[in-house]
Amino acid sequence: MASPSTAVLFGTRVIACHDDPAILNLIVKTLREAGCQVVKAYDGLACYELALELPAVRLLVVNSHLGEMDGPSLIQHFCTELPHIAVLHTGPDPDHRVPPDVPTLSEPFNAEQLLPAVGPLVA
């Protein structure tokens, strides 16, 4: 039987974007095990394009260091152009460019910390 936090996540479409492959794989594995449909994006522009093309995306999990379109810029696009998609920022925000209403999960984190951070965003 699924826990309450994973039951909320079942079937949720997520785009995960992170510059560190190990952290990206942790995010993808954790969310897939919780029943999410997760697509990986390897940079900010790919993440943005996926969000425009994929139907019913409900969540973006993204960090700050994403190349040409960095995390804070990507988050700004999502907040203004795709406000129906929830956003979870991971890692530090040294330039304080992530909007204050976007939740941030500090790195390093593990599966037990990721799931409770994601659940309320898609509930």
What would you say about this model in short?
This protein has a single domain, classed as Response regulator (Rossmann fold).
Topology:
Elements: H1 4-9, E1 13-17, H2 21-33, E2 37-41, H3 44-53, E3 57-63, H4 71-81, E4 86-90, E5 104-105, H5 111-122
Parallel strand pairs: 1-2, 1-3, 3-4, 4-5
Fold and architecture overview:
The protein has 123 residues and is an alpha/beta fold. The protein has one domain: 3-Layer(aba) Sandwich (Rossmann fold), CATH 3.40.50. 42% of the residues lie in helices and 20% in strands. The chain is built from five helices and five strands. It has a five-stranded parallel beta sheet, sandwiched between helices. Strand 3 (57-63), helix 4 and strand 4 (86-90) form a beta-alpha-beta unit. Helix 3 (44-53) runs parallel beside helix 4 (71-81).
Corresponding CATH architecture: 3-Layer(aba) Sandwich
Beta strand count:
5
CATH class designation? Alpha Beta
Q: Give the neighbour order of strands across the main sheet.
A: 2-1-3-4-5
Structural domain tally: 1
Q: What's the name of the CATH homologous superfamily?
A: Response regulator
Using only C-alpha atoms, the radius of gyration works out to 13 Å
Q: Structural class of the secondary elements? A: alpha/beta
Summed over residues and divided by their number, the pLDDT gives a mean of 90
Largest sheet: 5 strands, parallel
Helix content: 40-55%
Q: Looking at the structure, what is the overall shape?
A: globular
